[in-house]
Design goal:
Strand order of the largest sheet: 3-2-1-4-5-6-8
Number of strands: 9
Structural class: alpha/beta
Helix content: 40-55%
Shape: globular
Length: about 350
């Protein structure tokens, strides 16, 4: 019996590429949708995926991508227009009569969240629920394990993990474990239709514990230092991270400090849907360190790290309010972080395998 053709959007991204790798390993034909033809899409083609280049903003591109497809993984980018993309994808998926769609949402999704991406992810979930006749499984991971790896250069060279995490807890999921849950739902969707799953790592960790694990793998002592969010955003700006991402990250970090990512964690989603035990954070870090240029300190790499640190400190602090105004992001009369939302807590303390 021929296995169903599966479409993966965001194919060259964190979870998309990992999902494709797992599907191909299980013998599933995969159509990978990428924004552009580049080295990353070429690697997917070499691995055995059919690659189509197109935009999830374009109905014609989506119809082409979904032609002959039975199932799909929908993963939108962290960019303005989340709700628009979800509505278009749902409409074309219905039109194309897909059997099942696995949708990437997020843990902080809430109607009144100050981050528009979180609000529109909440609305996107509603759009897919309202799409009568479309069978959907929702994945809503929290703070990814590889987010910490963005600070690997100063961690490796200075023994300091300076991040604005407060005392928040997190059970960080790896991209690979998130992909295992996605693939579990794609390969056998029937038991999961209408349900929401949050992949996590096996243990909730304080920032000091996260720093200690990274230090253990690096073979040096690493100390966690809680830093002001504005200082962290200065460094993000110096690294040329997109303004929209910086503005959204500001609110996500505010929720991290209030322990929103510690709520309801850890879960058993990786085992229940992905059929393997969730990997520990140390295993994830080992994989990153093994392929990182920062695993060994040299005079040249230390000089570069010092230069980058000074560049971050000297960069003017970006203003989330100014960015929101410049991008014309709508403001709310009653904004509420997830940490302060009674409705968010009521839902997220529930068994997240139940139908919403």
């Amino acid at each position: 019996m021929q296995k169903p053709l599966t479409l993966v959007t965001g194919a060259t991204g964190k979870t998309g590429a990992a999902t494709i790798k797992l599907l191909l390993a299980q013998g599933y034909p995969v159509r990978a949708m990428a924004r552009r033809a580049d080295e990353r899409s070429a690697r997917l083609r070499q691995a055995g995926a059919e690659v189509v280049v197109g935009s999830i903003e374009d109905a014609t591109d989506l119809r082409t991508a979904m032609a002959g497809v039975q199932r799909a993984y929908y993963c939108p980018p962290l960019e303005p227009g989340t709700l628009r993309r979800a509505a278009l994808f749902a409409a074309v998926a219905l039109e194309s009569k897909l059997e099942a769609v696995v949708v990437m949402s997020q843990w902080l999704a809430e109607a009144n969240h100050p981050a528009i991406h979180a609000r529109e992810k909440w609305l996107s979930e509603k759009v897919f629920q309202w799409a009568a006749g479309l069978d959907v499984v929702t994945i809503n991971p929290g703070f990814f394990a590889d987010n910490y790896m963005l600070a690997l250069e100063p961690i490796a060279h200075f023994g300091l993990m300076g991040m604005p995490l407060g005392d928040g807890l997190n059970a960080p999921p790896s991209n690979e474990d998130i992909a295992r849950v996605i693939v579990g739902a794609l390969v056998n969707p029937a038991p999961h239709i209408g349900k929401t799953y949050r992949p996590t790592g096996p243990k909730s960790l304080a920032p000091e514990e996260i720093a200690a694990v990274i230090g253990k793998v690096l073979g040096r002592k690493v100390k966690y230092q809680n830093v002001p969010i504005n200082l962290f955003l200065k460094v993000a700006k110096s690294l040329k991270i997109d303004d929209f991402v910086i503005e959204e990250l500001y609110w996500f970090l505010r929720d991290y400090q209030r322990n929103s990512f510690g709520v309801g964690a850890p879960t058993s989603a990786v085992l229940e849907v992905g059929c393997v035990e969730a990997e520990g954070f140390e295993t994830t870090v080992q994989r990153y360190i093994a392929r990182s240029a920062f695993r060994e300190r040299t005079i040249g790499s230390t000089f570069t790290a010092i230069h980058n640190l000074l560049a971050g400190l000297l960069t003017p602090a970006p203003s989330p309010e100014s960015i929101a105004g410049r991008l014309k992001l709508p403001s709310l009369n009653h904004p509420s972080l997830a940490a302060d939302s009674a409705s968010w807590h009521a839902l997220h303390m529930m068994d997240h395998h139940l139908e919403r």
